[in-house]
Amino acid sequence: MPIYQVDHETVYDYRLPVLYSNHLAHMLPRTVSRQNWLSHSIEVEPNPTIRQERLDIFGNRVLAFSIEQEHTHFRFKTTGIVDVQNDEPPKQGETMKWEDVAKLLERPTSDETLDAAMYAYASPFAKFDESVRNYALESFEQGRPIFDAAYELMTRIYTDCKYTPGATRIGAQPQEILRGRKGVCQDFAHLMIGCLRSLRLPCRYVSGYLRTHPCEGQPKLVGADATHAWVSTYIPSHGWVELDPTNNVLGGDEHIILAWGRDFGDVSPLKGVITGGGEHTLKVSVNVDLKDR
Q1: What backbone phi and psi angles, to 5 degrees, belong to 259?
Q2: pLDDT for res 221
Q3: From the CB of residue 20, how many other CB atoms can be counted at a distance below 10 Å?
Q4: Model confidence over 82-96: pLDDT tens digits?
Q5: pLDDT for 40-69, tens place per residue?
Q6: pLDDT band for position 169 (50/70/90)?
Q7: For 232-266, what is each residue's pLDDT tens digit?
Q8: Which terminal CB of the chain, N or C, has fewer other CB atoms within 10 Å?
Q9: DSSP characters over 134-181
């Protein structure tokens, strides 16, 4: 069970003064069964006038804050230490047929299936059309176990799509990603979500961090890591299973969860509305380091 230190800093420098700003951050750690946050702290400059923490509808911890003093420099930094482990995945060939899962969620009969059902429908960043459904059906043959089919779909997205920063825009829909076959982790997560939901299967967008490994013989560059996105799908009698189509792996002890929702729009790490500011520069630095026990 590895322990990581995670540092995430966002800095805005504005050409003109910002007179007033409101912000919403999804960067407070979420407690889940496979990870335990040993410590976590947040630094905000300038110091917020109003600051409030709450839970959103998905159970994520959210920090809302306002800065009422004039400023040209804004800094938001989080630092945390987290203990992460793997979850045992389902066994191939032993999960419920995918059609039966879709039928089960049409009329939820428990708190667990009711929660899962809200992730089975299109959302603003994850709409889909017939092309997405047809692509999904290549893996979801009639009567196939849901885990087997979802795992194959993950592998196909990894194989068919090329990781290409800057190839897409924020908010590109699954069918756009499918046509272009290029994008980044956010895009591949939205494509997989669209595929599963086109079959009325629940799928969550997971936001967090991934431990990265430098090329052999090269030092790790401090701050060069980034936030990451993957998905999880609900499998009755097992629970939620994380799949990472960007890397073709199951979520495990190198995947650190911050929040989850229907799509990126629900869990954007930091967003806000400002008065003033004009042109600005943005610098984001993320570092995930393995710590000695």
Answers
A1: -160, 165
A2: 46
A3: 15
A4: 999 999 999 999 999
A5: 999 999 999 999 999 999 999 999 999 999
A6: confident
A7: 999 999 999 999 999 999 999 999 999 999 999 99
A8: C
A9: HHHHTT--TT-BHHHHHHHHHHHHHHHSEE-TTSS-TT--HHHHHHH-
Give the C-alpha distances (Å, rounded to integers) separating 36 from 20, 54, 87, 89. Answer: 36, 20, 13, 19
Residues 286/27, Cβ–Cβ less than 8 Å? no
The C-alpha angle 186, 287, 203, rounded to 5 degrees, equals 25
Q: Treating both helix axes as pointing N-terminal to C-terminal, what angle do 146-160 and 185-197 enclose, rounded to 10 degrees?
A: 140
The CB-based long-range contact list for 53-60 (8 Å cut-off, 24+ gap) reads 53/28, 56/261, 56/266, 58/259, 58/260, 58/261, 58/262, 58/266, 58/267, 59/30, 60/26, 60/28, 60/30, 60/258, 60/259, 60/260, 60/261, 60/267
Q: Which of 212, 180, 176 is nearest to 194 (CA)?
A: 176
What six digits make up the tokens of 221?
């560059």
